[in-house]
Every structure is written in C-alpha cells, then in structure tokens.
Amino acid sequence: MSLGIVFLSEVFGTAMLTLLGCGVVANVALRGTKGNSGGFLMVTWGWGIAVFAGVFVAAKSGAHLNPAVTLGLLVNGKTEYAPDVPVDFASTLTYFGGELVGAFLGAVVCWLAYKQHFDAEPEVASKLGVFSTGPAIRSTPWNLVTEIIGTFVLVFVILTFGGTPSGLGPLAVALLVVGIGVSLGGPTGYAINPARDLGPRIAHALLPIKGKGSSDWGYSWIPVVGPLVGGALAGIVANLAPIIVTAAA
Questions:
Q1: Less crowded by CB within 10 Å, the N or C end of the chain?
Q2: Is the keyword Transmembrane assigned to this protein (predicted)?
C-alpha cells in the first residue's frame, strides 16, 4: 500500500473522529443547541461512536487515528502498521501527519456546523472545551499521570487483543473508549490522543471564533506528552504480558 493511501486513510478517519467527537461536545456545551446540558455520559458515548465511525473509515491503514497507537505499535516491535505497510521512519511520519491533519480538519468542519452557536455562547471555556481537553483540577503532574494511565489502557488492550484498532474491531474500540471515558475521564476529559487534542486546539487558535479567548497553550503539552508516554509504555508491557502468562502457567 502506498504511503499516500495511508495518509489519506488516516486523514479521513481522524477527521471523522474529531468531527463527531468535537460535535457531541459542542452539542452539550454550547448555548441553544438541541443537546445542551446533555451531560458527560452523552459526551462519552458520542466519542465512542466517533471512534466507531473513524475506525471504519480508516480501516485500510489499520485505523490508528492516534499517534499514541502508532507509537505503541512501533515500540511493541511490530513489523507492519497495516497489511503491506512496513514500520519505518517514513511510514511513522505519514501516520503522525495524517492523524494531525485529519484532527484539525474535523474540528474546522465541526465549527462550521455549530457556527451560530459559537457566536451565541458567552463562555470562552465552553468554546475551547469543544476543541480540546482541560483538567477539572489543574495539577501538572497528576493531570499527566491521568493521561498516561488512560492511554496505556487504550493501547494495551488494542495490542493484546487486536494488534491494531481495525484488528480489534470498530465496535470493540468504541466500547473501550466509552469505558475509559466513564472510568478515567473525570480528571482531564481523557484526551488519550495527541492528535485529537492538538489538531483541534490549533483550529481553535486559527479560526475566527467570536470571543474565543485563549487556547490554553500552557496546558496543551500534557494531552500530547501523556498519551505518547502511555502508548509507549503499553507497547513495552504488551510484549511482557505473554511472558508473564506463560511463566505463571
């Protein structure tokens, strides 16, 4: 498979992910929408369905949709990211690039869908919250720990049960993301994906959103570094799991 196809697959899949994921947050958070004040459970299910759709769209490339997943596969020692896509420097950058571009584009389309509601929303935090995550209690080390743990669960389950998100299956990945959200999403909003947070945050900074305020760049590195660390750790531990099981038997 050509790297161009991989790039487009990840762009479209990640764009679908963030369009629907940011969209459910917009529906809950912005003034005057039909889903206003729908609550955190509505958000977690919306993100789960967003993952479900994104994995289907990007199945050809393995549907990583997330640099932490790509890094986890790399650290795990996989020889292919998807059938006929060898793990090397060029393919790794292609996945990272497609994921970030797709996340940015999905967020832009979400803004277009909710343009009037962004204009009507007086709270700058609600506008930023559509695009990117933020902590319930701001504490750099603990926010980082939360993102590491949540992403570790995501990538570890994918590696041990499916090999890739598409190998695990769209419904299984979607339910996994819902489970992480309702269990571990409270402290930070569970970015668990550097592209999902950084791409839309860049969109927030660049788009002409009325009264948007700051993009909170001071926090922005946590939902990037935390998931990358969590994904890398999952790749390492997933290699140890069969050894531990065999030794215990």
A1: C
A2: yes
